TrEMBL record:
SUPFAM superfamilies: NAD(P)-binding Rossmann-fold domains. Pfam families: Epimerase (PF01370). It comes from marine metagenome. This is NAD-dependent epimerase/dehydratase domain-containing protein. The lineage of its organism: unclassified sequences, metagenomes, ecological metagenomes. Transmembrane segments: none annotated. Residues 3-156 form the NAD-dependent epimerase/dehydratase domain. Belongs to the NAD(P)-dependent epimerase/dehydratase family. Gene3D superfamilies: NAD(P)-binding Rossmann-like Domain, UDP-galactose 4-epimerase, domain 1.
Length: 157
């Protein structure tokens, strides 16, 4: 085994608000188990963090070490990043956390609590329904799932 890819998480911000203990226990404990396994076998970890840790920072203000935690989910992801840093500082086990933004691609469902905006918009357009953009002043960053896979694979090298 050359490394571990860790994508497991409860990733719904609304669900983290509704039941933050269960959500946080899942996200943090599963990550700690992955890190423990990586330590045991001395292999690196590439894991999914989240853009959620930036919260509502102004556009262009997402520099390193600047956060705006607005949900338990965001706090979970930041906590996992700090554990990953500790894993390296104490045990010299490398990890890479990617702060993913809105990942989209084939197979996404528009009726899931984890739905991203693109499948919701596509579903509404196919049904000839209006697409509500909430005033038109929002800014979003999207990344295609195959690009994420490429970066994850490169990060493991």
């Amino acid at each position: 085994m050359k490394g571990i890819f860790h994508f497991a998480a409860q990733s719904s911000v609304p669900l983290s608000l509704k039941n933050f203990y269960k959500s946080s226990a899942n996200n943090i404990e599963s990550s700690l188990k992955v890190f423990e396994f990586s330590k045991k076998f001395s292999v690196p970890v590439v894991y999914a963090s989240s853009s959620a840790i930036y919260g509502n920072l102004p556009i262009g203000n997402d520099q390193k070490e600047k956060f705006s935690i607005t949900s338990p989910y965001a706090q979970d992801k930041l906590t996992v990043e700090y554990y990953a840093k500790t894993l390296f500082e104490v045990f010299k086990i490398s990890s890479v956390g990617l702060r993913l933004f809105n990942v989209y691609g084939p197979g996404q469902r528009s009726n899931s609590p984890y739905s991203a905006v693109i499948p919701i918009f596509i579903n509404r357009m196919l049904k000839k329904l209006s697409v509500v953009i909430n005033g038109g002043f929002q800014t979003r960053d999207f990344v295609y799932v195959e690009d994420v896979v490429d970066v994850m694979l490169m990060s493991m090298k």
